[in-house]
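Q: Please design a sequence for this.
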C-alpha cells in the first residue's frame, strides 16, 4: 500500500528479482493488480523466464501448455491439485523445492501414471542440469542422488488413448460393482475417481442420491 500510494502521487517504480521473471510465482503479481485497481499504468520489459526456458529444452510439446506453479506443502491439497489436472492433455509445468521433490514425483506417478518428464535446474548458469526421463526414472535417480536447488518440472499431458472416454454412468457402475464386493462407498468412489478422473465427491454424491430415491 505504501508503494501504491507513492505511485499514485506520481513516482515511478521498477520491480526486479534476483532470479527469474518478476511477477511469475512472485509477490510482484499483487503489486501489478493493485496498480490496475488504482489506474497506475504498468509496462513490462521481458526478462528470463524459467517456465519458458524449461519448456523449450524439455523435448515435450510446446504448442499448448499450462503453468501450475508450486504444489502445496500439504499432501491433501497437493493431491487435490494433481487430481484436478490429471486429465489435462497439454504439457504441464510445475515449480518444486528440493526437499519435496521425491515425494512430489511419487504423487505424480500415482495420479498421472508413468509419463515423460524433464527436470530442469540452474538454467543458463554454471551448474545447469536438464534430465529427460520418466516419472519412475526420476524417482529412482533422485532417491540415490540428493536434489539441489529449485526445479522446474515439465510433464507431458495425458496421452491420447484408443479407449473410449469413461462416461459418468460407467464410472457409477464401477462404484456399484466395488460396493457390491463389500467395499465402503467412500472407498469405492476414491478408487474410481483415481482411475477415471471424476471427482470423488461428485461420485459419492450421485451414489448417495440413488440410495435416497
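A: Design:
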Amino acid at each position: 500500500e505504501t508503494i501504491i500510494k507513492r505511485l499514485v502521487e506520481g513516482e515511478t517504480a521498477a520491480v526486479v528479482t534476483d532470479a527469474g521473471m518478476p511477477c511469475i510465482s512472485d509477490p510482484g503479481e499483487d503489486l501489478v493488480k493493485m496498480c490496475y485497481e488504482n489506474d497506475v499504468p504498468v509496462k513490462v520489459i521481458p526478462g528470463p523466464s524459467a517456465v519458458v526456458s524449461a519448456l523449450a529444452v524439455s523435448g515435450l510439446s510446446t504448442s499448448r501448455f499450462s503453468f501450475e506453479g508450486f504444489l502445496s506443502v500439504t499432501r491433501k491439497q497437493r493431491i487435490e491439485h494433481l487430481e484436478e489436472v490429471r486429465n489435462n492433455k497439454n504439457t504441464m509445468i510445475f515449480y518444486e523445492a528440493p526437499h519435496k521433490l521425491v515425494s512430489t514425483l511419487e504423487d505424480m506417478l500415482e495420479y498421472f501414471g508413468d509419463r515423460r518428464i524433464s527436470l530442469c535446474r540452474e538454467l543458463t548458469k554454471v551448474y545447469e542440469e536438464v534430465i529427460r526421463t520418466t516419472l519412475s526414472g526420476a524417482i529412482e535417480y533422485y532417491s540415490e542422488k540428493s536434489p539441489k536447488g529449485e526445479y522446474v518440472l515439465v510433464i507431458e499431458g495425458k496421452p491420447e488413448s484408443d479407449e473410449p472416454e469413461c462416461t459418468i454412468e460407467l464410472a457409477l457402475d464401477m462404484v456399484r460393482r466395488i460396493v457390491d464386493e463389500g467395499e465402503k462407498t467412500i472407498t469405492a468412489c476414491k478408487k474410481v475417481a483415481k482411475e477415471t478422473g471424476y471427482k470423488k465427491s461428485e461420485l459419492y454424491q450421485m451414489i448417495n442420491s440413488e440410495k435416497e430415491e
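Q: Thanks. Anything notable?
A: Residues 168-212 form one domain. The longest helix spans residues 168-180.
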